[in-house]
């Protein structure tokens, strides 16, 4: 996700959870019913912009008491931040957060009691 801090754009991980039952009534409603999580660490976009397609993102979900791989892939599967911002139509105002998309869930979307992410940035 893109986080606009003043005139600096940063990246972090996050989750735009939805309520699956409410989603049958409306996607907007399902998104409003769930808290949105944000990662603890931010990276300046300018520092990793040239490596976007090589960044590896993994998430692990705790399901049935077991830690399981939930997502795994490179960010080349998602639109780059500058493309998303251009499609939005203007720059991001300070304090704005924009989700960039998601990687497919391994084994399909399912409920979990915990979700953890890890990044691997190429050297």
Structure description:
There is one protein chain. The protein is α+β, with helices and mostly antiparallel strands and 123 residues long. It has one domain (2-120). 18% of the residues lie in helices and 33% in strands. It has helices at 20-23, 27-32, 45-48, 81-88; strands spanning 2-5, 8-11, 14-15, 37-38, 43-44, 56-63, 66-74, 97-98, 114-120. Strands 5-2-1-8 form a 4-stranded antiparallel β-sheet. Strands 7-6-9 form a 3-stranded antiparallel β-sheet, with no helix packed on it. A hairpin with a 2-residue loop joins β6 and β7 (66-74). The mean pLDDT is 85.
Mean pLDDT figure: 85
Low-confidence stretches at least 5 residues in length (pLDDT < 50)? none
| N-to-C SSE string, H for helix and E for strand | EEEHHEEHEEHEE
Distance between the termini: 21 Å
Helix content: 10-25%
Based on CA inertia axes, which overall geometry fits?
Answer: globular
Radius of gyration: 15 Å
Strand content: 25-35%
State the major sheet.
4 strands, antiparallel
Class of secondary structure makeup: alpha+beta
Question: How many E-type strands?
Answer: 9
Count of DSSP-assigned helices: 4
- Tally of separate domains: 1
Describe the strand arrangement of the main beta sheet, using strand numbers.
5-2-1-8
